[in-house]
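[Discussion] Sanity-checking designs against the backbone

I'm trying to build intuition for which residues belong where. Below is a structure token string of 279 positions. I'd appreciate it if someone posts a full sequence so I can compare it with mine line by line.
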């Protein structure tokens, strides 16, 4: 063999996929898409938690799953499925803190020192958000226990980091929450993937069609007001409305069910569904 024995290409190194021998033959390559699918399936879980407990409005904007990690989590937890890590961008943490305790940050102080209140708030958020995310990733199964006594210097191999980017309606700022998953948690997800594949392959076509996602819209409140008042609405105006005793559930414009709203573990649920006859 003569000449150059190296492969020449124009692809940047950060865009290359490096194969790891311990991952061959497993469904590790499907984990990022699997995580995104589950988080997009329940986009309001964490946002509703922020609204109920901290009275701030934010929406889940994007989800990224990163396998090449350059940072470490601020909080670490040991659970029955493995170790979880948690971090939060400071703008979002500050907004939650100010909404919960009151007060505002000084405009002339870009990076104030970390206070004990921020540390306590981060620890509280870490436990709550980790529980909610783990429940989503496990298909609704909650964690039985979560141990905070994981040392900062305890060696942990983080398999990936899930970045949840939220858009704050009050400040217009995008901030992220980061959930770190260790190798044991990744193995748990690949086990779920391995169990789901045979079921999908054996399902008849008619059943697959019945499993297609359908968007349901829930009407929580209604009000009537003159058109002049509607045209006069401005940003940050507050409308006094009363929640409906029986909420309406629609598919597009078609009324489908009546139901009641209940809350459990920071999530909202529709209960007591009654069908509505088509008129």
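Best answer:
Here's mine. Compare freely.
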């Amino acid at each position: 063999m003569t000449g150059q024995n190296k492969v020449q290409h124009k692809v940047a190194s950060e865009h290359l996929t490096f194969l790891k021998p311990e991952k061959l033959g497993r469904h590790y390559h499907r984990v990022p898409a699997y995580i995104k699918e589950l988080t997009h399936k329940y986009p309001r879980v964490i946002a509703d938690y922020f609204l109920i407990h901290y009275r701030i409005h934010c929406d889940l904007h994007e989800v990224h799953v990163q396998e090449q990690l350059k940072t470490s989590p601020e909080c670490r937890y040991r659970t029955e499925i493995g170790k979880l890590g948690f971090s939060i961008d400071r703008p979002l943490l500050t907004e939650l803190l100010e909404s919960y305790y009151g007060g505002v940050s000084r405009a002339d102080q870009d990076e104030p020192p970390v206070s004990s209140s921020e540390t306590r708030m981060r620890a509280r958020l870490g436990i709550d958000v980790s529980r909610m995310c783990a429940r989503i990733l496990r298909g609704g199964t909650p964690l039985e226990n979560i141990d905070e006594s994981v040392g900062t210097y305890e060696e942990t191999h983080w398999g990936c980091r899930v970045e949840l980017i939220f858009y704050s309606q009050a400040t217009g700022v995008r901030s992220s929450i980061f959930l770190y998953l260790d190798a044991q948690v990744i193995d748990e997800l690949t086990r779920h993937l391995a169990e789901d594949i045979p079921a999908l392959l054996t399902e008849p076509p008619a059943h697959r069609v019945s499993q297609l996602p359908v968007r349901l819209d829930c009407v929580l409140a209604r009000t009537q007001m003159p058109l002049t008042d509607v045209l006069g609405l401005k940003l940050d105006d507050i409308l006094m409305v009363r929640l409906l005793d029986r909420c309406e559930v629609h598919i597009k414009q078609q009324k489908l069910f009546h139901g009641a709203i209940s809350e459990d573990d920071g999530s909202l649920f529709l209960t007591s569904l009654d069908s509505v006859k088509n008129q």
